[in-house]
Write a structure and sequence with these properties.
single chain, 371 residues, alpha+beta, seven-stranded antiparallel β-sheet, six-stranded antiparallel β-sheet, 19 strands, 41% strand, disordered N terminus
């Protein structure tokens, strides 16, 4: 189950947000009794894997090809493997429509919405509609050209445990208006039989002395320094570039500051900004503030500020700085993120924001310190 995202990520006008502005078109609803007469219930457990078991009502006459060959069971983290394929009946005026389900093994915490946007960007698709059900499920409508013919794709992307299940109806544009109502209704019946709410990544826990604790993705590298003063403690976790191990794709810092020292929050935020400046990142305009952030129950109050930022040595890539402020028992927590911006490197940004949210939402005082 993905833990990140919500609509916070798109509260600021950007090039990426523009791709999400298209609302999902709605088509004439088919009465339930007519829909059941025009469809049949299909259920399957591909490769005998219960995590991919599904059911859906498909239009009458749609069938699997006789020479159907499914992709290898060893699902890739980069390529979508096909686990189901059905075609509409043959017709003279155009090629047949098809229904397919593909699966992908996910590596990092991400929302279904973020995954869908990355899919659209990587494949040069034209997004015509988007419908977000929750963090783990999103619907889309997009079009693409194939050998001079335009196709309309109505899809659902749903995270199930560590897998993305991608369900698609692919229809020649000339047939779309005719088939759209039953396709819309059919996708409403799609169901994963065995929902898996586990997280995509393994998580590690870090204890800050006997004071506080937080969780973070195991793919990030913890960087701690000797504690010289319990009134101000800092821990960092790093997202290193896979190809160039010495380079950071993102960094999160968790600062725990005694309330006796942090009597002025604005002053503490300025200290954090100055620290970014010393590292070569100028914190610029405040993009937006998230006041209703979901922290742990023992956070007395908190908020997250999101800033634009600029690299003093390379202004070709935009950056973002996220700063979460948490009022804890006797301490203030400051969780800060340094990341390429969503417009510069969307997938890296999405992964970084996901990790930030895990840290910020899990930071809490250790219970024995509250007694």
């Amino acid at each position: 189950m993905s833990t990140c995202g919500h609509q916070y990520a798109y509260a600021y006008t950007s090039k990426i947000q523009e791709l999400f502005d298209a609302e999902m078109p709605k088509y004439k609803d088919i009465p339930e009794n007519e829909f059941k007469e025009q469809t049949y219930l299909h259920s399957e457990t591909p490769f005998g894997d219960k995590s991919m078991a599904y059911e859906i009502r498909l239009p009458n006459g749609w069938a699997e090809p006789e020479d159907r060959i499914l992709s290898s069971y060893n699902l890739s983290s980069r390529l979508l493997g096909q686990i189901a394929l059905f075609y509409s009946p043959p017709r003279l005026e155009s090629v047949r429509s098809k229904f397919q389900i593909q699966a992908l093994r996910l590596e990092y915490e991400i929302t279904a919405e973020q995954w869908m946007l990355q899919h659209v960007l990587e494949n040069g698709l034209t997004l015509e509609g988007l419908e977000t059900y929750n963090e783990d499920k999103v619907g889309s409508l997009h079009v693409y050209l194939d050998e001079g013919e335009t196709f309309v794709v109505r899809s659902i992307a749903q995270i199930n445990g560590k897998r993305m299940i991608f369900v698609q109806y692919i229809v020649p544009a000339s047939q779309w208006n005719k088939e759209a109502p039953i396709i819309q209704k059919s996708l409403e019946t799609f169901k994963l039989v065995n929902p898996d709410n586990s997280m995509i990544e393994d998580m590690d826990a870090h204890l800050i002395l006997d004071l506080a604790k937080f969780m973070y993705p195991a793919s990030w590298v913890l960087d701690t320094q000797p504690v010289k003063n319990i009134e101000r403690i800092r821990v960092a976790i790093n997202n290193y570039n896979k190809r160039q191990k010495k380079f950071l794709d993102g960094q999160i810092r968790a600062d725990l500051v005694s309330a006796h020292v942090a009597d002025d929050l604005e002053e503490q935020l300025d200290i954090i900004k100055q620290d970014f400046r010393r590292r070569g990142l100028v914190v610029g305009e405040l993009m937006y503030t998230i006041e209703d952030y979901e922290f742990t129950d023992d956070v007395q109050f908190g908020f997250v500020d999101v800033y634009e930022a600029t690299d003093t040595s390379n202004n070709s890539i935009g950056y973002e700085v996220w700063v979460g402020v948490l009022a804890l028992n006797g301490y203030y927590g400051f969780v800060s993120l340094m990341s390429p911006s969503r417009d510069s490197e969307f997938f890296t940004w999405a992964r970084n924001v996901s990790a930030f949210e895990i840290v910020a939402r899990s930071l809490s005082m250790q219970k024995r310190n509250l007694d």
